[in-house]
Amino acid sequence: MSKSSNHTYSFPENFLWGGAIAANQAEGAYNLGGKGLSTQDVAPRGVMGSITEEPTDDNMKLIGIDMYHRYKEDVKLFAEMGFKVFRTSIAWSRIFPKGDELEPNEEGLQFYDNLFDECRKYGIEPLVTLSHYETPLHLAKEYDGWVNRKMIGFYERYATTVFNRYKNKVKYWLTFNEINSILEFPFMSGGIYTPKEKLSKQDLYQAIHHELVASASAVKLCHEIIPDAQIGCMILSMPTYPLTPNPDDVIKVMEYEHSNYFFGDMHVRGRYPGYMKRYFREKGIEIHMEDGDQEMLLNTVDFISFSYYMSTCQTADPDKQVAGEGNLIGGIPNPYLPASEWGWQIDPQGLRYVLNMFYDRYQKPLFIVENGLGAVDELITGPDGEKTVNDDYRIQYLNDHLVQVGEALEDGVDIMGYTSWGCIDVVSASTAQLKKRYGFIYVDRHDDGSGTLERYRKKSFHWYKDVIASNGNSLKR
């Protein structure tokens, strides 16, 4: 159905507009306040790079954007844009420096008290991820991360601690960031110290089982400790299209999508689906379950959250199976789509598609908690004498994606909110670069370590402020 160019979308009055970051990409202060080392502190080249024995000076995340010391300034800027919600994570190793201690680190707990208080001062609701690619390094080295069932108990102790501490301050929680990314990045996503090339499918899927049980346990604990809170899962979404109408390509897509739908199915339905049982049979994988696991998995989430950056294609033709340059979890480039500077294909309609697919499948509220464009930004002096960035390319990208969110709302999809990634420039997770910028706020820090760390409003800052103030009515079709 065609619409006029001045058509506006009906975003719900309580729609949660905001932005998202992760502690490990923004806070810095990796060795302050009693914090222990995390897996991020030994990954100077991002999720796709090798790890080091100890932190090295070329790891940009050790300082990040120094939000640890500048959070008041940053939250004030978020409030100026009109944020209703701010997604961040708690650095697990700030609370339990090694991960297996019996008692938490009070200085770390106090830092997040201060951060959440600052958010609430401006009426901003924190949306908090419990584990966002920052497993305590000791748990990776000593226990091989989630391969070891003991991780469930360590995670439960951590979750219980923060639920009790922040029960009056945080009403929205996520259990694991992009939990399905463990399939491609077992160290970063699952704290698994065994090199990926030596990790068996048996151990990988046993680790996934442990994470799923822990996630369900966190849901149960959250509902008990904070009855008025909502807790969801978080999935890396990458809708996949067949490269051709050949039925072989369609089946290839189905099988590929199963590997990612599996995580949502488990969080929403609490049972292993038939297609995964077949996969386990054919691969000789036997998931070891202990008494109570099946019952625990039935503690299902209140909503599904996900990241969306790109779509991809699949084909059964071995001659065409050439991976795209920037696609983190595989896939073949779509000949009909443009790509970003980092090779991520730009597909706004894919967001409407995935919203409909998730909602049709689960009939649960959805929350878009990551979406954005990484680009090289040029800091200039504007006509008013203020430093800024003319990032019309980012405005176009976000506008086009939010228009598709509006379309999904008209399709009848229940959408809770939208938090753009990252609302302020942070160190990239994929490449550990700062020149790959996503934010509405420019941070003066560069990949050679130089910069003042000063913050400057980009053109997109004022654009997003208008979008929020108009509740989406300022978007342009």
From TrEMBL:
Name of the molecule in the record: Amygdalase
Keyword entries, A-Z: Glycosidase, Hydrolase
Organism (species): Paenibacillus polysaccharolyticus
Pfam family, one: Glyco_hydro_1
The keyword Hydrolase appears for this protein: yes
GO cellular component, one term: cytosol
Family: Belongs to the glycosyl hydrolase 1 family.
Xref: PROSITE patterns: GLYCOSYL_HYDROL_F1_1 (PS00572), GLYCOSYL_HYDROL_F1_2 (PS00653)
Active site residues per record: E370 (nucleophile)
GO biological process, one term: carbohydrate catabolic process
GO molecular function, one term: beta-glucosidase activity
